[in-house]
Structure formats: structure tokens, C-alpha cells
Design goal:
Blueprint: H1 5-18, H2 24-31, H3 34-49, H4 54-63, H5 74-87, E1 93-94, E2 100-102, E3 124-126, H6 130-146, E4 156-165, E5 178-189, H7 195-215, E6 221-230, H8 237-248, E7 253-258, E8 269-279, E9 284-293, H9 295-300, E10 305-312, H10 314-321
Parallel strand pairs: 1-4, 6-7
Antiparallel strand pairs: 2-3, 4-5, 5-10, 6-8, 8-9, 9-10
């Protein structure tokens, strides 16, 4: 189980107390710029690494959960991505993401503790969630659109398949420190009657159902559940009706709506959705997670900006459900 924020703070305090250096953290935080701190830490690591032997490196390779190879063969990822990219609506642009993003991409933009992210000494962090990066790219593109009156209403639709890294420990079957996610991001301007939200939410949900149908043998699935969590304390009948229409068109799929939910409220706003699949062994997992956020609104300082992000755990789906022959 991952440490709480308080427990992580206590660990740092205990180390400083043991070393009789209670002011060290404050000194490093307040006394140096990021570039100065980077230079100091790089020099410290250089000196520490000079003391290591090849045997030490091999020992770390064997025991470090961050550096282990995936249990899924590359060919299966290729099949997954080929299917996913072929099913994308034509107006989505696909991106090959970098392994790193700007420092604070998760903890500043979204309420994620920085200890759950792998920070680097180079003023960057390893991508822990591709949707955060896609949101940054979408904000840059939306800003350009807003500078032109003719493009102000143009939507930005991005998709990526990317391996991410999470620093917290997972105790669930199939969960590892690094894994692949297929992510979608749609950014644009708010419209009357929640038209932006309804139209794009429908597009995301239908895409993931088509992806599941295209990849997973129906014999492996006991049931599928589309979960909807209303996060703003309001009844959202326009979303409920749309989701109900999608579910009624599918066999062995049910709809579960939780009104006035707190599940993910500190991360998403208005609405969150998940697609849960129960396999024939009775194991139920959420393979798809998405919802509306205020990230582009914050990044552009514009309350009229809207953003929908979502992702499917491609690695988890392959491990637990397998792919069609």
C-alpha cells in the first residue's frame, strides 16, 4: 500500500532528525534555484556512482521494480495499437510522446502527490499519465486557435499509446510500476446545452467499446459495466440518457450511475466514467477511466475552455483478458 502524504513527510523528517540536519530540507528548498540544486545533486550522484561496482548495478537490476521488462510480448502491444489506431475517428491526431514531461506536470496540474511520480534531476519527470501531457499539448494548440477568430471554436483531438511509470506500490493482480495506456484527449470551447460534453463523451465511450469488441473474445467476458459518477452534486439527465442509449444497444452490458459521487471529485469535475469488465473467473477490473477536467481552463486562464481525457489500460487488458486469436 502506498504511503500517505503525512507518512511520506514523516519519513523525511525522521531521516533529517537522524542526521542532525533538521534545516537541510529548508536550506535546499529556499537557498537554491532549481538550476543550482540540479548542479549540486548531479555532482552528489556522480560521486556516489563512482563508488558502485558492476556487481552493484546487476544487484539493483534484479531487485528494482522500475527496471523490469514487461510480461507482455511486443507483438501483442502492436496488435492492440493497430486495432486502436484503426478505430480512431478521423479527426484525432496521433502523437508519439516523449518519456519525460515538465516537472510538476501531475502534482501542479492535477492533485497527484509528487512522491507518486518519478522525478528527475533534470527539472523534469517521467510521464506517469499520458493525459496530463496531452492536456499540455492541447492547451498550446488551443491558445493558438484562440488567437484567431476563425479558429476559436476548433476542437483539438489527440491520441497516444504510451508506457507510463507510477512510483507508488500496487498490490493488485497485473499491476506493475510501468505499463502501457492508450489515451484520448479532446479540448475545445464550451457550448450551449452541454453540447461539447455530450458529443465528445459519447465519442470516447463508443471508441472504447469498439476497441474492446475488436480485441477481446466474447467468451472471456462475463459482463461489462459502464460506470458513471456525477461529481458536481447535480442530476445530469442528459448524460444519463446518452449512456443508457449506448448500453441498451449492447448485449451483456449494464449501466451503473452514482449521483453526487465523491469518487474522483478532487481530480475530475462534473462527470467521471469507467468501463469495468468481469472475466469468466469472476475478476472485475476497470480497464477504462476518463472524465472532464479543468486543466486547459487553468492553463489558459479561461473558464470557457473544456477538456475531456480518458485512457484504457492496454497492458492490463492484455494480461487479464488476452487478445483474440
Amino acid at each position: 500500500m502506498a504511503l500517505s502524504k503525512k507518512e511520506k513527510t514523516d519519513v523525511s523528517a525522521k531521516i533529517l532528525e537522524k542526521k542532525k540536519a533538521s534545516s537541510l530540507a529548508d536550506t535546499l528548498t529556499e537557498g537554491f534555484s532549481f538550476s543550482e540544486l540540479q548542479s549540486i545533486l548531479l555532482d552528489v550522484y556522480r560521486r556516489k556512482l563512482a563508488l558502485l561496482s558492476p556487481a552493484d548495478v546487476l544487484h539493483d537490476y534484479r531487485g528494482n521494480r522500475f527496471v523490469q521488462v514487461s510480461a507482455v510480448e511486443p507483438e501483442k502491444f502492436l496488435r492492440f495499437d493497430q486495432t486502436a489506431f484503426s478505430l480512431l475517428p478521423q479527426d484525432f491526431e496521433t502523437l508519439e510522446l516523449p518519456p519525460l514531461g515538465p516537472l510538476g506536470m501531475c502534482s501542479v496540474l492535477a492533485p497527484v502527490h509528487q512522491n507518486n511520480v518519478v522525478s528527475t534531476l533534470r527539472h523534469s519527470e517521467v510521464l506517469a499519465d499520458a493525459t496530463n501531457y496531452l492536456a499540455l499539448e492541447a492547451a498550446v494548440r488551443r491558445k493558438k486557435c484562440l488567437s484567431s477568430q476563425s479558429d476559436a471554436g476548433r476542437q483539438i483531438k489527440l491520441a497516444a499509446s504510451h508506457r507510463v511509470v507510477r512510483a507508488q506500490n500496487f498490490e493488485f493482480e497485473g499491476y506493475t510500476a510501468h505499463f502501457k495506456i492508450f489515451s484520448l484527449c479532446t479540448a475545445g470551447r464550451g457550448e450551449d446545452n452541454l453540447a461539447f460534453e455530450v458529443r465528445n463523451l459519447r465519442e470516447h465511450v463508443l471508441f472504447y467499446f469498439a476497441l474492446i469488441d475488436g480485441l477481446v473474445e466474447s467468451e472471456r467476458v462475463e459482463k461489462t459495466t459502464l460506470k458513471v459518477f456525477d461529481l458536481d452534486g447535480k442530476d445530469n439527465p442528459i448524460f444519463h440518457q446518452m449512456m443508457d442509449e449506448i448500453v441498451r444497444s449492447r448485449a451483456d452490458t449494464s449501466l451503473c450511475i452514482e449521483k453526487n459521487s465523491s469518487f474522483g471529485r478532487n481530480y475530475y469535475n462534473r462527470l467521471r466514467f469507467m468501463i469495468n469488465i468481469t472475466n469468466k473467473d469472476g475478476l472485475a477490473l476497470d480497464y477504462v477511466d476518463g472524465g472532464f477536467t479543468d486543466w486547459t481552463s487553468k492553463l489558459l486562464s479561461d473558464k470557457k475552455e473544456r477538456l475531456l481525457t480518458s485512457g484504457a489500460g492496454s497492458e492490463l487488458l492484455i494480461k487479464i483478458l488476452g487478445l483474440k486469436k
